[in-house]
Each structure stands twice: as structure tokens, then as C-alpha cells.
Design brief:
heterodimer; A: alpha+beta; B: alpha+beta; 37% strand
């Protein structure tokens, strides 16, 4: 039986990961509405017009497996698996932190790793793929430390804040997919 | 909405599919070679009928999808399926299918690609079109690479029996197409 949430009580501050509940989605939505230099979600199909709460909650509940990251019971970040394709055993991943992302190879990064593995097992996926803007250096560095490998860059693929951005493609494969 | 191109002998037309094309699309999608190439999973006849109904009725502005049928001298030779049209980024994914009922030389695929790019950049005013091609589909890879750049290779993306196949992501910008047209004119 796979647990729905994990927590790390040995860390200096208690960090926990849980599948998002209703109150978490409302907190996430408030963060989503904050103006930001970086888009909240990155999808190869491009940006969505601003979602209402109804659309946001529907997306997080029905189109994705959404996990929240809590630090001392306060919302600290999120990750979600979306476009889960059971036949291909793969999903897209997006993640964000509302303070700073864990440093690569840190204890906290290890906890993210554990949570991602749990979410992947629950979703039945052995390939996680992620997109990042080239300017999101910390996100890319964290993901590379979690075993994601660059697979290319999509030219002028995402329009955000008045200009086109390339998108870096990264993926993490479970061992059974290697050598395919 | 139709784009017409002529060579010395034949007239090529691209237009939106409609109800008259259902039987043609059903035959094409039911072809085993097409299914193996385009679909991630096997589809039953009922699923194919549903898919064709959906393709014929989809709208680029309502559904962000659109199917274009290419004809040579009024005979269907292939289709281009625009998906995930994003009107903010002005990007779209495109699938091409050549009729499995005809034998095609390299010119047919080439003309299909030109007409698809023409539709994308001259009609829809897109900024970019992109496609996903399985690594073992060498013919399509060669065709797409004449117009598009390989931008990413998704490792072990698709299951092929007991092994995994890479998928190539190829993209062309409107500026690439402009450069192609300029070179062609010269």
C-alpha cells in the first residue's frame, strides 16, 4: 500500500508532502494569482488564459495529480503530474516553490526526490518529463540533481510577458526504460 | 479556407475536412500501417468512427484543433491535423498522414509539407508548428527534417512491444518558412 503523504520529522524544520486537498487548492490558487516573472505552469501546448478557481481546481484534481509541499504546515511549494498517459507509462511534471527551491543534492532535495518517486509509483509512470525556461537555472539544477537529463530545447515555444522563450526539455527515466 | 498550388500538371488544394470525407478518413485511420505509426495504442472500429466524427467537427477556434485535407486533382492524397493550437503562443502540433491507398513518391510528401506550412503560417498566422515523430519512422523523419529542426529527442518515450522507442520533436518557425520561400523563389 502506497501512503498518500510522507513527512520528514528529522529535518530541522518539518517538511511534508501530501496530495492536495480542497484547502490546499485554494492556497495554491492564491499563489497562482500572484503576478510573477515566471509562469506558474509550463506546458508544451503553451500558456492558458487566466483560469478561474473552478477551472484551476478541476485541472489540479482531474487532469493532474497535484501534491503540495508543506513546511511547518504552511504551503511551501507544489508539484504536479499532468497529462498522465497510462499506456505509455509517462507523465509531465511541473513544480514550484514559494520561497526558494532546495539546493541540488541537499537533504531537502532528497526529500523532494522521495516524494516524486512516491507520486510516480502512484501514477504508474516510469518516465517523468519536465519543461523549464532557460532562465530557471535553479529549477534546472535541482531537477538535474534529481536525475533528470536534458533532451533538447524547443525554440521560441512559449510566449510570456511580451516575448518568446525557448523551453528546455528534461526527463527522468526509471531503470526499466534505459537501453530501450 | 483553401490553399491552392499548381505544378505543371496537377492542381493541389488544401481545405478543411467536412462530412463528405468521413469514409475516406475512416479507411485511412483503419489501415494497420497507419495505426501502428500514428497511434500510441490500438483503436477499435467504434473508437475510430468516434475519432473521425470528432475530427470532422473540430474547430480551430473552439477546440484548438483542425484537420486539413489535401487533394491532387480532386483526389484526397493526405491530411494534416493541427492540434493544441495555442492562440497565445501561436504554436500548434501537427500530424501528417499520406493516403495509404496511393503509392507516393517523395514529391507528394514534400507538397503536403509545403501546404501544411502555408496553412500554418499564411492562414493561421502561427509563430511555430511542431511535430512528434517516432524514431523508427525514418520516412517521416526525413520528410519533416526537410522543413523542420530536430529540437529534442525524448528518450524511451513510446513502448514498442518489449522495448522503448525515442520520439523526436521537430519544429519550424514562421521565419524558417519565410527563409524557405525566399530560397525557393531564388
Amino acid at each position: 500500500m502506497i501512503p498518500a503523504a510522507i513527512s520528514t520529522r528529522d529535518a530541522p524544520r518539518m517538511l511534508s508532502f501530501a496530495e492536495a486537498a480542497g484547502k490546499d487548492l485554494r492556497s495554491l490558487f492564491r499563489q497562482y494569482l500572484q503576478p510573477s516573472e515566471e509562469p506558474f505552469f509550463l506546458d508544451i501546448a503553451g500558456p492558458e488564459p487566466r483560469m478561474t478557481y473552478k477551472d484551476f481546481a478541476e485541472y489540479c484534481r482531474e487532469d493532474a495529480a497535484t501534491w503540495v509541499i508543506l513546511r511547518d504546515d504552511q504551503l511551501a511549494g507544489f508539484f504536479l503530474l499532468f497529462d498522465i498517459q497510462p499506456g505509455l507509462e509517462l507523465a509531465n511534471l511541473d513544480l514550484g516553490s514559494f520561497s526558494s527551491l532546495p539546493a541540488p543534492n541537499s537533504v531537502e532535495a532528497g526529500e523532494w526526490d522521495e516524494a516524486l518517486r512516491l507520486a510516480s509509483r502512484k501514477a504508474g509512470v516510469s518516465r517523468l518529463q519536465l519543461l523549464a525556461l532557460p532562465s530557471q537555472e535553479k529549477k534546472i539544477a535541482l531537477c538535474e540533481s534529481l536525475g533528470f537529463r536534458p533532451e533538447g530545447a524547443l525554440r521560441e515555444h512559449f510566449f510570456h510577458r511580451g516575448r518568446y522563450h525557448d523551453m528546455v526539455v528534461l526527463a527522468r527515466l526509471e531503470p526499466q526504460r534505459h537501453g530501450g | 479556407m483553401a490553399v491552392e498550388v499548381t505544378d505543371n500538371e496537377a492542381v493541389f488544394v488544401a481545405r478543411r475536412v467536412d462530412a463528405r470525407d468521413k469514409a475516406t478518413l475512416l479507411r485511412w485511420y483503419g489501415d494497420p500501417a497507419i495505426q501502428a505509426t500514428l497511434e500510441d495504442e490500438h483503436r477499435s472500429l467504434a473508437q475510430l468512427r468516434q475519432k473521425v466524427e470528432d475530427l470532422v467537427s473540430c474547430d480551430p477556434y473552439e477546440d484548438c484543433r483542425c484537420v486539413i485535407l489535401c487533394q491532387r486533382d480532386s483526389r484526397p492524397i493526405g491530411m494534416a491535423y493541427f492540434m493544441w493550437i495555442n492562440w497565445i503562443s501561436r504554436t500548434a502540433e501537427v500530424d501528417l498522414m499520406l493516403s495509404p491507398e496511393l503509392s507516393h513518391g517523395p514529391l507528394t510528401g514534400y507538397l503536403m509539407m509545403v501546404k501544411t506550412a502555408d496553412m500554418a503560417f499564411r492562414e493561421f498566422n502561427l509563430h511555430k508548428m511542431y511535430g512528434f515523430i517516432y524514431g523508427d519512422n525514418r520516412r517521416s523523419l526525413r520528410l519533416f527534417q526537410r522543413f523542420m529542426h530536430v529540437e529534442a529527442v525524448l528518450k524511451a518515450y513510446a513502448k514498442r512491444g518489449s522495448r522503448y522507442e525515442d520520439v523526436h520533436v521537430l519544429g519550424a518557425l514562421a521565419s524558417d518558412y519565410d527563409a524557405f520561400c525566399k530560397k525557393y523563389r531564388q
